[in-house]
C-alpha cells in the first residue's frame, strides 16, 4: 500500500471484530512506527499495549469509575482547551452529527448518545489498546511529537489491514490509569488508541469525515 492510499483510507474505526492480534505482529508494528520523528530525537513517548486479560482489566476499571460519573476524574490537561474558535466548534458539532446520523441516534436522544459514547471505554470492541504515556514535565512540543508517533502507527495499521481509533477520552481517568499501570511519579497517560480488524458491517465505520477547504488552512506564497 502506498502512503497516499493509507492517508486517504485511514479513518477513526469505531467498530472492531474481536479477532486477536498476534503479539509478534504488534511488536513489529510498534518497532516500525518508532521511526517517527521527534524534536532533538527525544522520543518523548512511552507506549503501553494491552490485550487479553490486561485489556479487560482496563475496561473493568473504566466501568467501575465511570458508571454514573461519565465525566470521570479531574485533569489539568482537558481534552479541549477553554478557547476554541467558532470554526473549530462548528467542525466538532458537524462530525458528531454525521456520526450519530450513521448510527441512527437522534439529537434529542441524549441518553442514547451517551451510551454509545461510552463504548469508547470498551475500545469499541477492539482486542488491543495502546496508551501513550508522557512525562508531565515535557513541553507542548513533545505532545505534538507524540502525535506523530500516533499517526505513523495509524498509517502502518492501514497497511496491515488493521483499523485504529485515537482515544483522548481516556484522559478522564488519568489518576486511576496512573495507579493501574504503576506509572512513575511524573508520568501520565495522554491518550489511548483502539486497534484491531475493522468490522466492515458496523455502520459507524461508514463515516468519512470532512475537511476544511485548502484556502481555509493553507496559504501558498511566492509560487
Ligand atoms: C488525539 C486524538 C484523540 C481522539 N480521541 C477520540 C476519542 O476519545 N474518541 C473517539 O471516538 N474519537 C477520537 N478521536 C477521533 C477524531 O474524532 C477523528 O480523528 C476526527 O473526527 C476525524 O475523523 P477521522 O479520524 O475519521 O478522519 C481522536 C482523534 C485524535 C487525533
**Could you spell the SSE succession in H and E letters?**
HHEHHHEHEHEH
End-to-end distance, in Å? 31 Å
The CATH homologous superfamily of the domain at 3-68 and 122-207 corresponds to NADH Oxidase
Largest sheet: 4 strands, antiparallel
**CATH architecture grouping of the domain at 3-68 and 122-207:** 3-Layer(aba) Sandwich
Question: What bound compounds does this protein have?
Answer: flavin mononucleotide
Question: What characteristic shape results from the CA principal axes?
Answer: globular
CATH fold topology of the domain at 3-68 and 122-207: NADH Oxidase
Q: What is the percent of helical residues? A: 40-55%
Describe what this molecule looks like in 3D.
The chain has 223 residues and is an alpha+beta fold. It has a domain at 3-68 and 122-207: 3-Layer(aba) Sandwich (NADH Oxidase). Helices cover 41% and strands 13% of the residues. The protein is built from 8 helices and 4 strands, in the order ααβαααβαβαβα. The longest helix has 20 residues, at 140-159. The radius of gyration is 18 Å and the shape is globular. The model has no long low-confidence stretch (mean pLDDT 97). Flavin mononucleotide binds at residues 11-12, 14, 95, 120, 165-169, 191, 209.
Amino acid at each position: 500500500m502506498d502512503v497516499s492510499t493509507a492517508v486517504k483510507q485511514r479513518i477513526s474505526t469505531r467498530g472492531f471484530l474481536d479477532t486477536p492480534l498476534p503479539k509478534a505482529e504488534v511488536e513489529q508494528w510498534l518497532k516500525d512506527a518508532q521511526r517517527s520523528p521527534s524534536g532533538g530525537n527525544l522520543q518523548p513517548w512511552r507506549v503501553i499495549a494491552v490485550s487479553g486479560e490486561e485489556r479487560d482489566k482496563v475496561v473493568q476499571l473504566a466501568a467501575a469509575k465511570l458508571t454514573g460519573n461519565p465525566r470521570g476524574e479531574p485533569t489539568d490537561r482537558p481534552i479541549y482547551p477553554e478557547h476554541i474558535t467558532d470554526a473549530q466548534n462548528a467542525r466538532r458539532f458537524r462530525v458528531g452529527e454525521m456520526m450519530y446520523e450513521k448510527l441512527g441516534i437522534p439529537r434529542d436522544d441524549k441518553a442514547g448518545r451517551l451510551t454509545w459514547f461510552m463504548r469508547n471505554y470498551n475500545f469499541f470492541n477492539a482486542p488491543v489498546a495502546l496508551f501513550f504515556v508522557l512525562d508531565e514535565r515535557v513541553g507542548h512540543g513533545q505532545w505534538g511529537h507524540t502525535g506523530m508517533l500516533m499517526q505513523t502507527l495509524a498509517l502502518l495499521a492501514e497497511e496491515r489491514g488493521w483499523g485504529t481509533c485515537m482515544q483522548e477520552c481516556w484522559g478522564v481517568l488519568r489518576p486511576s490509569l496512573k495507579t493501574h499501570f504503576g506509572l512513575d511519579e511524573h508520568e501520565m497517560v495522554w491518550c489511548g488508541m483502539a486497534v484491531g480488524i475493522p468490522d466492515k458491517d458496523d455502520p459507524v465505520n461508514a463515516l468519512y469525515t470532512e475537511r476544511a477547504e485548502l484556502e481555509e488552512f493553507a496559504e501558498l506564497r511566492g509560487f
